[in-house]
Amino acid sequence: MPEIDPAEHDVSELGPKVQSIEDPEELEALLSAERDGENRDAVITVIESRLDRIADDEGGGDGDIDLDAMSVAEIGNALQDVEDPERLRDLLDRETNGEDRDPVVRLVERRLNSVEGGDEGDTGGAVTDREPPEERHPELDHPTADKQYVTALDDGTYRDMWVYCETQAGDLLDVSRELLGKARELMDGYNEEYVDGNAGEDGGGEANERVVAMLVGDDVADHADECIALGADVVVVHEDDRLARFRHEPYAEVVADMARWGADPPARDEDRAPTPPSDADWRDYDEPRYLLFPATNNGRDLSAQVQAELDSGLASDCSGLSIEDAGISNPVKTGDPGSTRTFERVLHMKRPDFSGFEYSTILCLDNPDREFHPQGASVIPGSFEAPEPDPGREGLVVDHETDLDDDWFRVEVTEFDRLSGGVDLSGHDVVVAVGRGIGADPTGGMELALELADAFEDAAVGVSRGIVTGSYSFDAHVESYTAEERQIGETGQEVTPDVYVAAGISGAVQHKVGCDEADTIVAVNTDPDARIRDWCDYFVEGDLFEVLPRLTDAVEAGGLDAEAIADGGGGVTPGADPATDGGGANE
């Protein structure tokens, strides 16, 4: 049995641990344990990738690259160790004369450009001209490097930040309000940074760019005034009684048509004419510069479809946004190896990466011969504060009309049940959350969390993603407290209590997103190196089964005895004086 039991960790926890293992035999044992146990594809991929990396390191990076046997991802990793241009040209020839996969060809060409680019502006490795896909693959109806229905705009004009404002059961969602407030903040800063101060006043200079809200559904026009009060300059409304509930295809078609309203891009279907430009006299550009969606179930569905229809990219589940210039040296983006190109007005989209422990910033940048707009993101609910509405704001409300194809409604929902309500953890003074640390006795650990919550006047119990996705067995009387609706984190709820108690939670970034705005965070964990120690206010090194009862006793007694808590574990590491700050936990 390996030192690490993979069944006790999710992939976000295993990733960093696997990367620290240097012994191939230990990795093989870990791989075998995973296959004999939960057999998760993502975990197996992480372990196999680490094994491959160690094998490459031991071989000095000179092992042969088997193009036929390796996946695109494996080829991409292997190419990073190849420094010989002649070898790269040989790989390129082998691929183009063999399977001729566009992703592999691009990877080899990029590596060749990087290797030949040299230092200090040497541009000896010019970017290879790419044949149009219809010339490369004349035998195919829809060449693989081309989209079946849409083509990117050439020399398009892009303006404004558009926000899809989601409604449910006739109500505007809070995340829609949050997005409008953030969009207003971003575009105010954008206009100050990039736009002529005399814009629009006397016909000179560049006009200020706007926030455009989109409302789609039945009776959604009632929300137009609120959208303006929250920061929108323009509200585009499409109403149809068939859109009372979210429908996969018609919603995507309507929102995409709104975005390219007045432009003349290729329509999804050749026999469908684009909306006449005269119907869009309120705008003078082809597509939005930026496009934001809520990262709800419907918003995730819609954002991916719309951005694909507009032939651009999408950063999903973001929690931070800013607009800045970006200097990029990647030859695929610059067209000139060894040089740096400055991209202006770039939307920086911040999200936790797949390891769960770091943030990544996603950029949507044009290629030298290819435009990627709108720059699109879906945003996790609760990432931003909703603004105070300004009833005095004025704006423009525009009705959008387009024919809805009957074929888009070929699936009909004849009956559905609406849940009376879920569990809202956001309004409590205290939240007690438990994670995989309860694994020794799941029911008992949940009972301890409930007892601690009951000791406060206003507290609720939440769980980490590890509890929701794990295979724990709970007794019936606590099972309801382990449901997904109580999950805290990036894909769950975001809470801002006065006190947040995290028991048996390692502290991945996805969880941090859900509780980072709490006034005081108290963590209980047996691992002194747990990531949560870096960002909590108090860290109690100890077993939650011993520490939580002492916390409950302390709260019921009206104070927090740090020494008593420390007796239950290895000690308390406070971010402040427990004697002065701990008592606030009973408020």
TrEMBL record:
Signal peptide: none annotated. InterPro entries: DHS-like_NAD/FAD-binding_dom (IPR029035), ETF_a/b_N (IPR014730), ETF_a/FixB (IPR001308), ETF_asu_C (IPR014731), Rossmann-like_a/b/a_fold (IPR014729). SMART domains: ETF (SM00893). It comes from Halobaculum saliterrae. Residues 161-413 form the Electron transfer flavoprotein alpha/beta-subunit N-terminal domain. Belongs to the ETF alpha-subunit/FixB family. Residues 1-12, 128-145 have a biased composition (Basic and acidic residues). This is Electron transfer flavoprotein subunit alpha/FixB family protein. One of its GO terms (molecular function) is flavin adenine dinucleotide binding. Pfam families: ETF, ETF_alpha. Residues 1-23, 110-148, 263-284, 566-587 are annotated as: Disordered. It comes from the Archaea.
